[in-house]
Amino acid sequence: MPIATAPAFQIETATEAEISQHVTTSLTVFRFADNPAILVLDFASLHEQGKMLNRVAAFVEKARLPHERVLTDSELNAAIQAKGDTVETYYFGHDYSAASLARFFALADAARIDLDPLEEKLRALLRQQGWFAAGVAAGLISVPAAGSDPRITDAVRAVILRHELSHGEFFSNAEYAEYVRRFWQTELAGEERGSVRGFLAKQDYDVREEELMYNEMQAYLMFTRDPAFFAADMVGMTQDRLATLRGRFLAGMPAGWLRNALAGYQSPVSAQ
Q1: Rounded distance between C-alpha atoms, residue 271 and residue 227, angstroms
Q2: What is d(CA 97, CA 255) in angstroms, rounded to the nearest whole number?
Q3: Distance CA 247, CA 99 (A)
Q4: Beta partners for 31?
Q5: 3-class DSSP assignment, residue 165
Q6: What is the pLDDT of residues 51-67, one digit of tens each?
Q7: What is the pLDDT, as a whole number, of residue 271?
Q8: 21/24 Cα distance (integer angstroms)
Q9: Which residues, including other chains, have CB under 8 Å from residue 213's CB and lie 6 or more apart?
């Protein structure tokens, strides 16, 4: 008798607009048309998203949690409750590199951590895509369905998607990641970097992770245009200073879809 194999994931190629406007009733996997190295997980519920990705979030970027080992169920639940969160509210959108995801599963296996069936589903998807091989430059992001939380309107979903897609580009495009690193080090003053760290610390990011800091800098300062998520005064900047930074960032960006997206804003401080 042949050994049963898990069914292959059906992955649809789609543009940002198509993903943003998609209405899902179950987990849908998209390959981003403008950068096929970015996979987008479109979740019908925040609960399903959290069960699949919260443990990865804790492992990769949460403050005061270990990044050299994977949390058990009880440790993860305690970490979520300690912040006054639930499975659903721990994150609204996720983003991880292929390398981080491969390390997560390797360490989970080494420690014999019992993973959730949805985490195993994620493993199967990554295996299908070949992301456990060394040197894969790719990014996985997620977006929740509009209405999965009262705060997630269609407009907010679009904001989350743009934010997360910029992370996907960072993870999959070495030229862009290096550009962001240089901009962080040379264009922001020391006190401005400190203010960005303070802003991210309030959201419980691990500020000791330098790459995480400048990756989040580009996503928030350049690509998050909803004041509920980001505004200049949240990092101690004036609107004029933020506009200047956005203009300088755009001027030096590598060519491609993300540069076109930044150029497409009507003004450096307009909401999306």
Answers
A1: 7
A2: 21
A3: 31
A4: 13, 39
A5: helix
A6: 999 999 999 999 999 99
A7: 33
A8: 10
A9: 184, 193, 196, 197, 200, 205, 207
